[in-house]
């Protein structure tokens, strides 16, 4: 319940509006009026590159903002069902009624393709509170190095916009990796910022268009600025595909790690799917972890001593339904598998394929 | 019982459970699973749009009803307001609450429609309902001794329930249950009738009672204090309107629900004959223990599609507004396998329920020829003597 509901006025209203609460009625007037759920309306849709879409959102009053670098879970309704995906806002922090996300198409991605094809002004999306330790902390460091690849540019964009909105005038360097100029998200704005701010050095590498940028090829330590200031002195933020981040981590070894912040997203459709007896089951609420035996999640919870409500044990009564936070499960009756994060599943007829995390 | 149980129960040969061979039952079960799979594959946007439209209608009826009752001093406003609020409570409890709490819309991942979180406009706390109904009743449907919906712990609705003189009051208890149905449902999970025998844990029941009290308090405050207070000195009009709306919903819900498992031709089962059931046997029992009501689209919506009780018991977690369409296939399969598919209009199904309530008020040895009035009198006298401390 949001702290707003604790206010006596709203409590009285909720006593009138029980059991559905004020939101149950406000929602009928306008889905953005709800007080207890963070939601946002799509205001503008810009298809900036051929494989990405940039959405400007207007969050409702329940939204409490984010810090540059953090991510939010965005809930999108597709064929009646809500799907949640993590996106890092690219907009300036501190502007409560404005949020920008850029979604890059993944070939298999349900949500990214849906938004790229169907997002339009007026569409209402759900939001989680902003999450993640990948954020620019105040007081701001004396020099900053940003490394971004693909859609990993989005949290770095939020950092850059936030810095320049507050006239940060110390050195900032961005290493930006994209396949070619046409698929470089935020290319035009980055060029403009580089022209306006003398302290901002923009170094681009187009991995499939050698010679088109200031650098060439995938990330290498040779790309790093060695002077004015040296990369080792800068607070570094890196976000991008796993291969890029692995290379970056390898370079920041030997005591430099504390200056390095990394963020990696793997869309659930592309997450590795394990075998029935592989991986680890994590019971997030209880803080218990057990190796996945391949048995139903209900049996595994019971074997691990995690209290789990149950009823029919045959997939009828939904007493054991709990939220799967991450991982792939198979329905033991239908044989269907799903890698959807944040999904209600029936523990008695679900088994994990590889790692799986439950809100239990 | 588990989803993978393979052991076959061997009910006595006279049981309707034996009307098919084990192979037929398994094939019947596979056909039911196939119907379920087809519907799951087709579940989507139109189901979401449907339930949201019903919720929109319910919220509109509720707001409209309460607004009219605020001005209930004018008789047309009182009548229209009471009717709108009655419909709102019926929709909320039956087509929305009951069905959402079965997890029929869990796949939408919408917290407003989550079976785990939904709370409804009636005295029974949603979490207790989920236990007594979704689990106890739907898993153990019509198994005497396990399914407490047989008579709600108050009535004698099956010959298998041992007759005691208390049941002479069967028709009276039924009328009281119907009138105060929301409280009967609320107290259901307390299993008060099992307290004296020590079968239940009093501490656990105290927790349940606290939950019931909390919910009843909030419901009462809303319907009988807060909204009437808005009308100031004219508080009696909304208050009586709210009371009649609650009563209408009680009588309607009782009628529909009692038509689900008690009309003539539905069967009850013993614990022994349903031990170690297979999935096919479970499906078979659900059909044998349930009865449908025929009627038009509006009737089905107002019954929460419990008029398709057979389909609901086969597939309790599929969106209920789809039962009508799959009932064609279910009925066809039942006919092919010779499984009785019990369906009739409300008046005849409810008529047979009422007849059963009266018939089972008396012990079996008094039948088949109806006892003479004198005998009823002496039975009643004996019973009353027994009841005296």
Give a description of the structure.
- The complex is a heterodimer of chains A (360) and B (389).
- Chain A is 19% helix and 29% strand.
- Chain A is of the alpha/beta class.
- Chain A folds into four domains: 1-27, no CATH class; 28-127, Elongation Factor Tu (Ef-tu), domain 3 (Beta Barrel); 144-268, Nucleotide-binding domain of ferredoxin-NADP reductase (FNR) module (Rossmann fold); 280-358, Beta-grasp domain (Ubiquitin-like (UB roll)), CATH 3.10.20.
- Helix content of chain B is 58%, strand content 2%.
- Chain B is globular.
- The A-B interface holds A 15-16, 18-20, 24-25, 27-28, 37, 75, 77, 79-84, 311-319, 321, 332-334, 342-344, 346, 348-349 and B 1-3, 33, 37, 40, 43-49, 56, 59-60, 63, 102-103, 106-112, 114-116, 119-121, 126, 130-131, 134-136, 138-139, 218-219, 221-222, 226-227, 279, 282, 316-317.
Write the topology of this structure.
The complex is a heterodimer of chains A (360) and B (389).
Chain A: H1 8-17, H2 21-29, E1 39-49, E2 52-59, E3 72-78, E4 81-87, E5 99-104, H3 110-118, E6 124-127, E7 144-149, H4 153-165, E8 172-178, H5 187-196, E9 200-206, E10 235-239, H6 242-251, E11 260-263, E12 280-283, E13 288-291, H7 297-303, E14 321-331, E15 337-338, E16 343-346, E17 350-358
Parallel strand pairs in A: 7-8, 7-10, 8-9, 10-11, 12-17
Antiparallel strand pairs in A: 1-2, 1-6, 2-5, 3-4, 3-6, 12-13, 14-15, 14-16, 14-17
Helix pairs in contact in A: 1-2
Chain B: H1 22-42, H2 45-70, H3 75-101, H4 126-139, H5 170-179, H6 181-187, H7 202-230, H8 236-261, H9 279-288, E1 292-294, H10 297-302, H11 309-314, H12 323-337, E2 343-345, H13 346-359, H14 373-387
Parallel strand pairs in B: 1-2
């Amino acid at each position: 319940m949001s702290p707003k509901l604790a206010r006596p006025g709203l409590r009285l209203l909720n006593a009138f509006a029980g059991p559905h609460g004020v939101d149950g009625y406000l929602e009928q007037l306008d889905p953005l009026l709800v007080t207890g759920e963070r939601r946002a309306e799509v205001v503008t849709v810009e298809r900036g590159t051929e494989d990405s879409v940039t959405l400007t959102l207007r969050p409702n009053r329940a939204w409490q903002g984010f810090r540059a670098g953090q991510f939010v879970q965005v809930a999108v309704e597709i064929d009646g069902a809500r799907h949640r995906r993590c996106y890092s806002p690219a907009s300036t922090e501190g502007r409560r009624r404005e949020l920008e996300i850029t979604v890059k198409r993944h070939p298999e991605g349900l949500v990214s393709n849906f938004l790229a094809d169907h997002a339009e002004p007026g569409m209402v999306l759900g939001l989680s509170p902003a999450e993640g330790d990948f954020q620019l902390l105040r007081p701001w460091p004396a020099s900053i190095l940003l490394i971004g690849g693909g859609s990993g540019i989005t949290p770095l964009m939020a950092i850059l916009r936030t810095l320049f909105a507050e006239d940060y005038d110390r050195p900032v360097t961005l290493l930006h990796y994209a396949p070619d100029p046409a698929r470089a998200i935020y290319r035009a704005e980055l060029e403009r910022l580089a022209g306006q701010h003398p302290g901002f050095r923009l170094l681009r590498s187009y991995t499939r268009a050698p010679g088109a940028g200031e650098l060439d090829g995938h990330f290498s330590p040779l790309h790093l600025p060695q002077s004015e200031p040296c990369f080792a002195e800068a607070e570094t933020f890196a976000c991008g595909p796993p291969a890029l981040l692995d290379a970056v981590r390898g370079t920041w070894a030997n005591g430099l790690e504390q200056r390095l912040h990394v963020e990696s997203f793997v869309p659930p459709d592309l997450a590795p799917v394990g075998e029935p007896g592989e991986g680890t089951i994590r019971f997030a609420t209880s803080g218990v972890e057990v190796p996945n035996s391949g048995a139903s999640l209900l049996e595994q919870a019971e074997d691990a001593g995690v209290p789990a409500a149950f009823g029919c044990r045959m997939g009828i009564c939904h007493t054991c339904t709990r939220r799967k936070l991450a991982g792939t499960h198979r329905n033991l009756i239908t044989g269907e598998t799903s890698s959807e994060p944040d999904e209600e599943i029936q523990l008695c007829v679900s088994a994990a394929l590889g790692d799986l995390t439950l809100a239990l | 019982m588990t989803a993978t149980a393979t052991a076959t129960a061997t009910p006595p040969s006279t049981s309707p459970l034996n009307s098919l061979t084990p192979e037929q039952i398994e094939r019947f079960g596979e056909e039911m699973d196939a119907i379920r799979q087809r519907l799951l594959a087709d579940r989507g946007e139109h189901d979401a749009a449907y339930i949201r439209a019903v919720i929109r209608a319910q919220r509109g009826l509720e707001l409209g009803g309460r607004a009219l009752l605020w001005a209930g001093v004018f008789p047309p406003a009182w009548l229209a307001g009471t009717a709108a609020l009655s419909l709102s409570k019926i929709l909320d409890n039956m087509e929305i609450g009951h069905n959402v709490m079965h997890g029929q819309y869990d796949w939408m991942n919408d917290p407003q429609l989550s079976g785990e979180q939904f709370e409804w406009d009636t005295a029974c706390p949603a979490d207790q309902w989920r236990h007594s109904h979704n689990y106890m009743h739907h898993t153990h449907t019509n198994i005497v001794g396990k399914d407490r919906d047989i008579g709600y712990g108050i009535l004698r609705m099956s010959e298998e329930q041992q007759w005691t003189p208390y049941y002479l009051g069967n028709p009276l208890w039924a009328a009281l249950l119907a009138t105060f149905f929301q409280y009967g449902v609320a107290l259901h999970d307390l299993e008060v009738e099992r307290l004296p025998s020590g079968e239940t844990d009093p501490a656990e029941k105290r927790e349940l009672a606290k939950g019931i009290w909390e919910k009843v308090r909030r419901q009462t405050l809303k319907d009988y204090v807060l909204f009437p207070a808005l009308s100031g000195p004219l508080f009696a009009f909304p208050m009586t309107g709210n009371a009649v709306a609650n009563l209408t919903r009680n009588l309607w819900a009782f009628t529909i629900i009692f038509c689900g498992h008690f009309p003539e031709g539905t069967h009850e089962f013993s614990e022994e004959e349903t031990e170690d059931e297979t999935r096919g046997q479970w499906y078979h029992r659900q059909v044998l223990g349930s009865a449908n009501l025929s009627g038009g689209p509006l009737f089905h919506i107002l019954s929460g599609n419990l008029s398709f009780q057979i389909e609901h018991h086969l597939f309790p977690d599929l969106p209920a507004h789809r039962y009508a369409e799959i009932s064609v296939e279910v009925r066809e399969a039942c006919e092919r396998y010779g499984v009785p598919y019990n369906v009739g209009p409300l008046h005849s199904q409810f008529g047979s329920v009422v007849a059963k309530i009266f018939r089972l008020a008396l012990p079996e040895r008094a039948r088949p020829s109806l006892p003479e009035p004198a005998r009823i009198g002496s039975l009643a006298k004996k019973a009353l003597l027994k009841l005296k401390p």
